[in-house]
């Protein structure tokens, strides 16, 4: 494979880097590794983590050719960015692209989202300080569906992010969210050029919604990041975390799949990553990894695919999903809970509670 512009002789393992495809990300000019590194697990959001192990994971990932890392102030409420900053020490800045986010922040629902210009400007400064960087490559508006209105994003947040790009603190403008239709609407209505979209849980073993939108994103020259191949824990043998917003029905079908995988000594999460890596359209598949063991595991899937036995189990599980799963997503579940909480108080049924 051709070496990407992020290759640094003397730092990277050239033989390993050449094993990876590096794909164009829209019209940004960035060529990103087909597998990229998510850092939500550099915080309590996905259970236990170890800072030194996170550091080893980041160094090993980049040396082997992963060149896109994604984080956010929301992950651990600043913790992920802070730990990632420590992990990046000693790594040449040229060796990676870094994406972070604005607009989603605190655990308290009343302080969780802020799409204002003032907070957005403050947020990027805080992120750069935590990360120990002078700039990020992609600055993404986090979960745009939670804005008071899309108009707020279009007329205030996006122009502010564009100002930040012009200031040199970021290079490209991105947006993220769960409803893919909202991402597309934002792209088509924006007077500011949106360079990337991050879509999560929408091109997986149980949900292929993103496929319907890929041609339209590409027509608008938008790079696509496909995140959460294992649907935030739904598609793994251990099952989803308690906070997962999927319906009991979806969880039950996924449990049937994971039980079958356990009986056959196959990890459903491996099948899920394999499945997402086979999908055409996205520039990269973003997978959360906070240990070298998990990194090695996903590199193995990427480079070697599935064994014959794993392929048999994969085909069986896909048949279960295709025949039994009559609903595949939880669109608006968290959104409705959030606005109900804001209006009436009470408990918020949201992520990472």
From TrEMBL:
<protein>
    <recommendedName>
        <fullName>NADP-dependent oxidoreductase domain-containing protein</fullName>
    </recommendedName>
</protein>
<dbReference type="InterPro" id="IPR044479">
    <property type="entry name" value="LGALDH-like"/>
</dbReference>
<dbReference type="InterPro" id="IPR020471">
    <property type="entry name" value="AKR"/>
</dbReference>
<dbReference type="InterPro" id="IPR023210">
    <property type="entry name" value="NADP_OxRdtase_dom"/>
</dbReference>
<feature type="domain" description="NADP-dependent oxidoreductase">
    <location>
        <begin position="35"/>
        <end position="313"/>
    </location>
</feature>
<dbReference type="InterPro" id="IPR036812">
    <property type="entry name" value="NAD(P)_OxRdtase_dom_sf"/>
</dbReference>
<dbReference type="Pfam" id="PF00248">
    <property type="entry name" value="Aldo_ket_red"/>
</dbReference>
<dbReference type="GO" id="GO:0005829">
    <property type="term" value="C:cytosol"/>
</dbReference>
<dbReference type="GO" id="GO:0010349">
    <property type="term" value="F:L-galactose dehydrogenase activity"/>
</dbReference>
């Amino acid at each position: 494979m051709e070496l990407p512009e992020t290759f640094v002789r003397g730092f990277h393992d050239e033989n390993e880097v050449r094993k990876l495809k590096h794909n164009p990300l829209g019209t940004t000019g960035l060529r990103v590794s087909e597998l990229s590194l998510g850092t939500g697990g550099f915080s309590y959001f996905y259970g236990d983590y170890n800072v030194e192990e996170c550091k080893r994971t980041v160094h090993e990932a980049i040396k082997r050719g992963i060149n896109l890392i994604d984080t956010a102030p929301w992950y651990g409420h600043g913790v992920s960015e802070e730990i990632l900053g420590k992990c990046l020490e000693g790594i040449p800045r040229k060796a990676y692209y870094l994406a972070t986010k604005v607009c989603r922040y605190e655990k308290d629902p009343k302080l969780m989202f802020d799409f204002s210009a003032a907070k957005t400007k403050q947020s990027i400064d805080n992120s750069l300080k935590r990360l120990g960087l002078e700039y990020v490559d992609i600055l993404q508006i986090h979960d745009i569906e939670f804005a008071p209105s899309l108009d707020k994003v279009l007329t205030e947040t996006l122009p502010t992010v564009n100002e930040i790009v012009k200031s040199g603190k970021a290079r490209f403008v991105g947006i993220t969210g769960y409803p893919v239709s909202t991402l597309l609407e934002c792209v088509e209505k924006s007077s500011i050029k949106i360079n990337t979209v991050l879509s999560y849980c929408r091109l997986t073993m149980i949900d292929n919604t993103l496929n319907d939108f890929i041609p339209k994103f590409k027509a608008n020259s938008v790079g696509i990041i496909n995140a959460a191949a294992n649907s935030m824990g739904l598609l793994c043998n251990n099952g989803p975390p308690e906070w997962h917003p999927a319906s009991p029905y979806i969880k039950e079908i996924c449990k049937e799949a994971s039980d079958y995988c356990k009986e056959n000594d196959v990890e459903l999460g491996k099948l899920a990553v394999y499945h997402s890596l086979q999908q055409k359209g996205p520039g990269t598949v973003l997978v959360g990894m906070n240990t070298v063991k998990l990194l090695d595991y996903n590199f193995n899937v990427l480079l070697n695919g599935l064994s014959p036995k794993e392929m048999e189990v994969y085909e069986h599980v896909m048949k279960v999903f295709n025949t039994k799963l009559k609903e595949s997503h939880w669109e608006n579940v968290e959104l409705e809970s959030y606005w109900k909480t804001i209006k009436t108080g009470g408990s918020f049924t949201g992520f990472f509670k």
